[in-house]
Amino acid sequence: MTTEKPHRLRTLRNRIAASPDAILVLVVLVIFMDMMIYGLLIPVFPQYAPRLGVGESVIGIIFGIYAGMLLLFSIPMGLLSDRVGRRPLIVAGMLLLALATALFGFSTTITHLVAARTVQGVSAAATWSAGLALLADTCDPARLGEKMGVALSAVGVGTILGPVAGGLLFEYAGYTATFLIPAALAASVGLAVLAVPVRTCRRESGPHRSPMLPRGSLLSLAACAVVIVAVSGTYGVFDPYLPVYLHAVFSASPATIGVVFAVLAVAAILAQPAAGRIFDRYGGSRYLIGGGLLLAGGATVAAMQAGSLPLTAAAVFVLGVALSCALVPTMPLLADIYRDHGSQGAAYGMYNTFFAIGLSAGPFAGAVLAGRWPLPAIFLGLAAFLGVTGILSGLAFGRLTQR
Predict the structure, then answer these.
(1) Which of the residues 123, 217, 266, 337 could staple to 96 if both were Cys, CB 3.0 to 4.6 A apart?
(2) How buried is residue 296: exposed, middle or buried, by Cβ count under 10 Å (0-12/13-18/19+)?
(3) What are the C-alpha distances in Å from 73 to residues 11, 78, 123, 134, 239?
(4) CA 334 → CA 27, 143, 300, 301, 320, distances in Å?
(5) pLDDT at 217 (0 to 100)
(6) pLDDT tens sequence across 284-334
(7) What is the mean pLDDT of residues 355-369?
């Protein structure tokens, strides 16, 4: 009896380690925590300006540090996960996220905020690159699109719940508890990943290193990069400028604007797993990606032409579905590019880097154009860009893939 119980425990742990569904749950939890804490800061950050005696522009710069760190560290973290395994990077990333969140709660200077935001961005680079690579390692390639879609849905859930949780915690639990409670949750998720014996791929070190730019796949990689940057750049334009447009045209309150963005997030939550499932079963990357970008351009035009707030919200919902259809297929396509080289960490380090480029470039491009064009013209220019990119992407993937 004394040896039977440990044997059963080991058997159970091995089953969990071998279960792709268990891996999916862990990765979803990790991504959800990252995005929930990212969103939690949105209603709290405005409090820092009067608290620390700085302008809102400084707070905006601090907010943008996250994307900068994601851009700088995603590829190094992905490559590191190829060397040491996925789980150590995921655990380290979650513990860094807990540290950064706690540091926000005790920040009394701008230097503290910069340090906290920097650590938060580095932690995201580690968890996203290693977590998505872990899914690619353990999932049947024939179902990878659906699994990636489910994982990305955690982004939408975290985006919706984060600001709500931040506002409620700040109002009812106080400033410090607003950060310490999520910090404890992030640390708990990291320890949960540490407790599960996840079987991960580890590439042997040596003179034969997998290339970051695999020969024979550069055009496929470039096509994926253009699509990812286009999708994330669209979010980068809509996130800062749609609230301004809604307030100017419809006198929308902050709560109403929040509802419109919740509609965008819900659309992504629903559409991403479905888009992945369609890609797994039927392929058709040229139709999903090209058609998705074209539909996104049309939805952007519809949002600008809508004469009422409900019609605008409906167009935003279509936009969320369209962007999901375009984005999700790029994830299994990247896995295919790097699978033969044994470097899924590099694949999703590249994905994060492309996404961060668009997320950073979108607001910058909008800021440059805002001084010359009215907001509707900026959005219509974005719609034209999405339409052209959709046509070119459809043609490119039609030639590059046989799916």
Answers:
(1) 123
(2) buried
(3) 37, 8, 9, 18, 23
(4) 18, 14, 27, 30, 22
(5) 81
(6) 888 999 999 999 999 999 999 998 999 999 999 999 999 999 999 999 999
(7) 85
Specify the 3-state DSSP secondary structure of 382. Answer: helix
- Confidence grade of residue 205 (pLDDT, cut at 50, 70, 90): very low
Q: Which CATH number fits domain 1-200: 1.20.1050.90, 1.20.1250.20, 3.40.50.150, 3.10.180.10?
A: 1.20.1250.20
Look over the chain and give the mean of its residue pLDDT values, rounded to a whole number: 86
Report the alpha-carbon distance of residue 305 to residue 249 in Å, rounded. Answer: 11
CATH 1.20.1250.20 occupies which residues in the chain? 1-200, 215-403
CB 51: neighbour CB atoms within 10 A?
11
For residue range 101-147, list pLDDT tens digits in order.
999 888 888 888 889 999 999 999 999 999 999 999 888 889 999 99
Please say whether the beta carbons of 231 and 299 come within 8 A.
Answer: no
Higher pLDDT, 341 or 76: 76
Residue type, 2: T
Superfamily of domain 215-403: MFS general substrate transporter like domains (1.20.1250.20)
Helices (H), 107-143: 110-138
Instruction: For residue 259, give Cα distances in angstroms to 243, 256, 265, 272, 304.
Output: 11, 5, 10, 20, 18
Q: Which pTM does this prediction carry?
A: 0.86
Q: What is the pLDDT of residues 225-280, one digit of tens each?
A: 999 999 999 998 998 889 889 988 999 887 888 889 899 999 999 999 999 999 99
Q: Is the dihedral of CA 99, 240, 360, 113 positive or negative?
A: negative
Q: Which residue type is seen at 316?
A: V
Find, among 242, 230, 233, the residue nearest to 359 by Cα: 233
Phi then psi dihedrals of residue 7, to 5 deg:
-65, -45
Is residue 398 packed enough to be buried (19+ CB in 10 Å), middle (13-18) or exposed (0-12)? Answer: middle
Give CA–CA dist 78/130, Å, rounded: 6
**Apex 378 CA angle, 375 and 384, nearest 5:** 145
What does the pLDDT average to over 67-74?
Answer: 91
